[in-house]
Amino acid sequence: MLFGSSGIRQEFGPGLVDLALRIGAAIAAGAPGIAVGRDTRTTSELLEHCVVSGMFSAGASVYSCGIAPTPTVAHATRQTDAGCMITASHNPESYNGVKLFNPDGSSFTLRQQAAIEDAIERTHWKNWDEQGHVRPIDAVDAHREAILDKVSLSRPITAVLDCGNGAGSVITPDLLTGAGATVIGLNCNVMGRFARPSEPLEANLPYIGEIVRRRDAACAVIHDGDADRMMAFDERGRYIDGDHLLMLFAKYLDRKRVVTTVDASMAIEEVAEVRRTPVGDSFVSEELLSWGDFGGEASGSWIFPEHSYCPDGIYAAGLLCEIASEWSIAEELDRMPRYTLLRESHRAGAPREVMAAMGADEPTHGIRVEDEDGWYLIRASGTEPKVRITAEGRTPAKAKEMLEAGHTALERAKRILE
């Protein structure tokens, strides 16, 4: 199985290079026009060349976005038959991979993924007079202008922005400046290496809070490697967890039907009607196609259906600055419901086998156990060799109890495999 919860990701090596060529040809077999972009990793240009070569060999026309965020490529895809982004998103720099999109920005569905995996095993060669060609397009400008048409600040603010040396560096600084913010930029260049771990976790951002307070900023915006994610800090320099960002966006936009994942806090159910999906932005976007007016994951993926079915950290960054220009974000957060939610990751040599031993039908969907006052979820990561445990309780003691129950269940499964 090639696809995880968000595209295909692997450690960089000859196998991934060969796979990229075959993926390109497989996509082109069903899509004659394809938008292609890449993140800033040192390995992305090589993989882009391989994917594009595969597309050429199958006769496709390629619309090259160059270095661009995932949501920017997804935005460009509305003018084509499919989109392809070379990225491993928030994974460490040694990883890379491929994300595939439909023209509405939604990720390829499970059915489409299965078709691609089947097509990879076949040959899609065109004759010399049917080979494809490339056309560069300015996807960044088009995406930025589309967001500026929808986002505006009611007053000038100062915003801290950390792009983590990822693809957001080519668009978010200009976007926020164009919207009316004074931007304090950190790691906003595309040098090819990440100055900090790409995942926008609080532990990876110990310096942000002090900068926000010292510069009297209204907020801080943080991207991962391909800027499909956006996390944030309020004006007091406090990291905003993803569950409360989900509630903040839902309240500001007056969204009453929210799609989120099984590992999100139960607090969201106090402010909106909720449907839950397995973990992975592709599942959230697929559910939004038939129900809901806003969706997201606590990991930082925010989907605005009226804009795109692709998680758009760029749009979310602009929207957060708009909110900061109208509200005190800190005061809004303090009024929101809050329960104790604990998240842990455990490295595992065979996470799928561990989950199978626990009785999970699909390892990345996992096992969720709940009662009236709390729940825990154990699942295999779809992007890394890890097993993740999430637990929540109405009290800290209940959350700890549910986390310990999850540990016990995980250790029991490991013993079965010994």
Automatic annotation (TrEMBL):
<dbReference type="InterPro" id="IPR005841">
    <property type="entry name" value="Alpha-D-phosphohexomutase_SF"/>
</dbReference>
<feature type="domain" description="Alpha-D-phosphohexomutase C-terminal">
    <location>
        <begin position="353"/>
        <end position="403"/>
    </location>
</feature>
<dbReference type="InterPro" id="IPR005844">
    <property type="entry name" value="A-D-PHexomutase_a/b/a-I"/>
</dbReference>
<dbReference type="InterPro" id="IPR016055">
    <property type="entry name" value="A-D-PHexomutase_a/b/a-I/II/III"/>
</dbReference>
<comment type="similarity">
    <text>Belongs to the phosphohexose mutase family.</text>
</comment>
<dbReference type="InterPro" id="IPR005845">
    <property type="entry name" value="A-D-PHexomutase_a/b/a-II"/>
</dbReference>
<keyword id="KW-0413">Isomerase</keyword>
<dbReference type="Pfam" id="PF02879">
    <property type="entry name" value="PGM_PMM_II"/>
</dbReference>
<dbReference type="Pfam" id="PF02880">
    <property type="entry name" value="PGM_PMM_III"/>
</dbReference>
<feature type="domain" description="Alpha-D-phosphohexomutase alpha/beta/alpha">
    <location>
        <begin position="2"/>
        <end position="123"/>
    </location>
</feature>
<dbReference type="Pfam" id="PF00408">
    <property type="entry name" value="PGM_PMM_IV"/>
</dbReference>
<dbReference type="InterPro" id="IPR005846">
    <property type="entry name" value="A-D-PHexomutase_a/b/a-III"/>
</dbReference>
<keyword id="KW-0479">Metal-binding</keyword>
<keyword id="KW-0460">Magnesium</keyword>
<dbReference type="InterPro" id="IPR024086">
    <property type="entry name" value="GlmM_arc-type"/>
</dbReference>
<feature type="domain" description="Alpha-D-phosphohexomutase alpha/beta/alpha">
    <location>
        <begin position="143"/>
        <end position="237"/>
    </location>
</feature>
<feature type="domain" description="Alpha-D-phosphohexomutase alpha/beta/alpha">
    <location>
        <begin position="241"/>
        <end position="337"/>
    </location>
</feature>
<dbReference type="GO" id="GO:0005975">
    <property type="term" value="P:carbohydrate metabolic process"/>
</dbReference>
<dbReference type="GO" id="GO:0008966">
    <property type="term" value="F:phosphoglucosamine mutase activity"/>
</dbReference>
<dbReference type="Pfam" id="PF02878">
    <property type="entry name" value="PGM_PMM_I"/>
</dbReference>
<protein>
    <submittedName>
        <fullName>Phosphoglucosamine mutase</fullName>
        <ecNumber>5.4.2.10</ecNumber>
    </submittedName>
</protein>
<dbReference type="InterPro" id="IPR005843">
    <property type="entry name" value="A-D-PHexomutase_C"/>
</dbReference>
<keyword id="KW-0597">Phosphoprotein</keyword>
<dbReference type="GO" id="GO:0046872">
    <property type="term" value="F:metal ion binding"/>
</dbReference>
<dbReference type="InterPro" id="IPR036900">
    <property type="entry name" value="A-D-PHexomutase_C_sf"/>
</dbReference>
